[in-house]
Fold:
Amino acid sequence: MDLMTAPRPRWLVLAGLPALIAAGFVWHGHAAKQEARADWQIGLAAADITPAEPVFLAGYASRDRAHEGVAAPLHAKALALQDADGHRAVILTTDLIGLTAEVAGPVCERITAATGIDRADILLSASHTHTGPMLTLSADPTTKMDASQATRQAAYTRDLQEKLAALAIEALGRCTQPARLSQATGLAAFVMNRREPTADRGVVLGVNPRGPVDRSVPALRITAPDGRLLAVLFQAACHNTTLGGDFYRISGDYAGYAQQMVEEAHPGVTALFTLGCAGDANPHPRGTLEMSEAHGRALGDEIGRLLADPDAWSPVSGPLTTRFAEVDLPLQPPPDGKALAAMKLQPGGSWRGFVASEIERRRAAGESLPTAYRAPFSVWQFSDDLTWIGLSGEVVVDYVTLLESALGGSRLWISAYCHDVYGYLPSARVLREGGYETRGLYAGGIGFFAPEAETVVAGAIARLARDAGRPESLFPPP
Structure:
């Protein structure tokens, strides 16, 4: 697969399009002059976001205490872009498990208030490391955290929000460096499908060498007009789970090590990482710090190989046109009481038990249950050269094929874990087969996605891409 200006509000509800309105499609946009083609101006900023005090790590429910040291620091990085028309946008990457809407929303509001850019001009991304801090704005004690620890966890999250907003504002303020953009695609061989079919337990978390994965490594190179390398942004579609729940030290896992190795090989250069449709992919092998470093080295070496090959890169021109939408994704009808009780008793059912228990609690309280979850999505169109899609949630690999079928496979970059990480976004196939990725929403709402959600997502992204100016010639024939 080939994967490749004054302040203005852009919160618009589409009118005259019943199908989109029925789907809860709310969009924001920033238009750009289609005839303008020129080089860029960029701004870069980076910050260390390693917790200074012990906090609980995110990603594994088995952990029962705060972190115990730092294997490698965590970073947030911002890349601001400005095209020849003065349209500015910013990409914010983080060595974090994921930014929920509750955490991300105030960050974006602060950026737009301080800079005047639109929400469509902000792309938030998380590496989904499972050895980074748990994020929460609640200081209430839990079964694992006492009041002091819960207060510390919430304080870190609030401080993080301030740092992320300040970082994006700083990069936008520095957006004066003339630059050229180009793209290339490499390969990550360590990506492994983790949905292992069994004879007696259904689909389990394991190793499935025959399962589908996306091993592409799209890369964006940013150079000065004289050819000097300024930054490189790259992606892999693989969970940052080389390290397991028995690991209690801070680390960005393979993505963190890959960025570090690229920056060490190119002093003064900023390396940024985004995550692809990694919902059902793990690194292989996994389990030790040495393996994490090895996967990071392999990914860093692949970026080094691309950077050393001038023929691998093709230009990415302006103008930049951005679109952002919030789309109501349909949820399955809530299971009845008997089915909910059975969920909690199934072997390995704890990952669905949370949703089952929350549905029971809300029913007992007389609350209505949602029929949809409003999920954010974005499209950035770089002239005719590149369509960059920002999907929210933990997106499984089937969405790569779905979006290629809807938009065409060329000049396409598909990122996930953007804007709001609310839970897994499974495909209809994954829902049919069952398994961990069908666990439902774990943040911002409650319920299980319906199979029809994939059709809603593909249609919404195709409409955004068309409106952003993706060339009609790249779409598949009707």
